[in-house]
């Protein structure tokens, strides 16, 4: 049995009179990639930010690695990795300097080149954040979540706006991080991404979880209702063409 690392029980959150999260409960297992899916405004980011200790909840109980969020938020902060908003990267510093800065804030010793290597950014060590492409920015921002050697990282739409290769490259990076034992919680609007990447997904709609299982099981359940997808006439799609023509491998994005 996999250990449970996050428990969310009956979580509620309102912004004034508006109820954004309406009684959400779920568990995340240690070492899994857990996806939160749902339409715009469903309450995904709100839920993540509450678990990340960045936002207050109205009610509910949250435990992260045995720590109660109401009692030990600072202990929780130490074992999680959260992506910064891009505005958080001091414009005057290069990537190595930024890593030194963040490592200092966490009181951690980190080898910047090793960390940059792990996200394929060694070549950009002396560049500023604003000089990176979209995919490179995402990889750097994921690298910064690893500085405090967290048990869990939270990725909010990490592949939005990336080209097909950069997305695949990021999937490999996320799988690689998980293979080292880190639990990953991710939100995404790309169902193909959730299907290949996530061990389990929760689908949230209007502040409630309406389904939670493995992607395979959710698909099987739908098929069992008699649902049938219109037959694909072609053996490939335009994304296949794009990847075939431009190559699968990491390139200078
Ligand atoms: N600071 C805030 N003040 C008021 N309402 C907010 C605030 N933050 C979020 N909301 C509202 O709460 C609801 C849930 O927002 P949230 O950002 O959690 O959704 P989401 O599922 O992450 O959406 P998206 O996919 O668009 O990122 C939305 O209706 C949003 O307008």
Walkthrough of the structure:
- The protein is α/β, with parallel strands linked by helices and 253 residues long.
- The chain has a domain at 4-85 and 153-246: Rossmann fold.
- The chain contains nine helices and ten strands.
- Helix 6 links the parallel strand 7 and strand 8 (183-187).
- Helix 5 (134-145) packs parallel to helix 6.
- The longest helix has 16 residues, at 164-179.
- It starts with a strand and ends in a 7-residue tail after the last helix.
- The model has no long low-confidence stretch (mean pLDDT 91).
- Adenosine-5'-triphosphate binds next to strand 2 and helix 1.
In the CATH hierarchy, the third-tier topology of the domain at 4-85 and 153-246 is known as: Rossmann fold
In DSSP terms, counting alpha (H) and pi (I) runs of 4 or more, how many helices? 9
Chain oligomer state? single chain
* Arithmetic mean of pLDDT: 91
Report how far apart the termini are: 41 Å
Strand order of the largest sheet: 6-7-8-3-9-10
Whole-number radius of gyration? 19 Å
Low-confidence runs of at least 5 consecutive residues: none
What top-tier CATH class of the domain at 4-85 and 153-246 fits best? Alpha Beta
What are the distinct ligands in this entry?
Answer: adenosine-5'-triphosphate
How many strands, what sense, and barrel or not for the largest sheet?
Answer: 6 strands, mixed
Topology order in helix (H) and strand (E) letters: EEEHEEHEHHHEHEHEEHH
CATH superfamily of the domain at 4-85 and 153-246: P-loop containing nucleotide triphosphate hydrolases
